[in-house]
Amino acid sequence: MRVPTPTFTQGESAMSYTHRSIIERGKLEILHQQGESARAIARELGRPHPISLELRRNAAQEPYQAEASQESYVQRRKASMETRDVIAAKTFR
Tens digits of per-residue pLDDT, 51-72? Predict the structure, then answer.
């Protein structure tokens, strides 16, 4: 049996979003400190995902700090993975 290959329109991909790297966060920090708008930063980074979400999510740190934002991301990701594992364990009992 042949498995169909998914087709995507222009601009689409199998994974529509990737997490920001520390390098991207560093660029974001510099551009934000230079007074660039969230839209201009997104354009510079080549990211369709709103930069404003990243800035809001890490609003407690003023000004935006790449390293602290990366650590926050790691902690949120770890917590979500633990929650997922708990749900999976309950589901497969």
Answer: 888 888 887 777 889 999 999 8
